[in-house]
Amino acid sequence: MAYYIVLPFFTILLIVLQRTLLDLLFGGRIGVEMSLILVIYAGFHLDMVRGGVLAFLAGFLLDCVSGTIMGLYTFIYVLIFILSYLLSPRIYGERMFFIMGYAFLCVLLEGLFIFAVYWSVYGTDVSQGLLRTYLPQALVAGVLSPALFALFNRLEVHVHAGEAR
C-alpha cells in the first residue's frame, strides 16, 4: 500500500528533475529520458499492476508537462512497459550491454513514434530533428541506463522495506 502512496511523489520528482534541471544542465539540446528508463525498469522488475500504474502515471505527468498531443507519452510509455514486461521472462535483464542496447532502442522507438504522429496528425516534417535530437538522446539514455537501473533497484529495496522483489 505504501507503494501507491509514495509512487506519485517520486514520479513527480523524477519528471520535474528530468524536464527542468537536466534541461538546464544540457542547455535544452539533449533531454535525458530518465522516466522512460524507469518504465523499462518497471517492465523488467515489477508486476503488471504496479508497473502499469507507474508507466501510466509517468506518461500522464510527462504529457501534462510537455504540451504535446494529450495521451501521446502515456500511450508510448504503457506500450514500452508492456513490451518490456512481455520480454522480461525470456531474457536476462541484468546484463549491462543488454540494458544499454534496449534503452537505446526504446528511446529511438519513442522518437520514431512521435515523428510518425506529428507527420500524420499535423503534416509537419520533423525528420531533421529526429537525427539531431533523438539519436543523441538515445545514446545518452543507453549510457546512463545501467546506473539508473542500479539506482532504481536501491529505491525499490527501500520502498519494499529492505526486501527486493
Account of the protein in words:
The protein is mainly alpha-helical and 165 residues long. It has one domain (2-164): Orthogonal Bundle (Arp2/3 complex 21 kDa subunit ARPC3). It has 6 helices and no strands. The chain has helices at 2-25, 34-45, 48-66, 72-87, 96-121, 127-159. Helix 2 (34-45) packs across helix 6. The longest helix has 33 residues, at 127-159. The two termini are 15 Å apart. The mean pLDDT is 85.
Poorly predicted segments:
none
Distance between the termini: 15 Å
The percentage helix is over 70%
Shape: globular
The ordered H/E elements are: HHHHHH
Strand percentage, roughly? Answer: under 5%
What's the short story on this structure?
The chain has helices at residues 2-25, 34-45, 48-66, 72-87, 96-121, 127-159. The chain has 165 residues and is mainly α.
Q: What is this structure's SSE topology?
A:
Elements lengths: L1 H24 L8 H12 L2 H19 L5 H16 L8 H26 L5 H33 L6
Helix pairs in contact: 1-3, 2-3, 2-4, 2-6, 3-4, 5-6
Descriptors:
165 residues, mainly alpha, Arp2/3 complex 21 kDa subunit ARPC3, 6 helices, 0% strand, globular
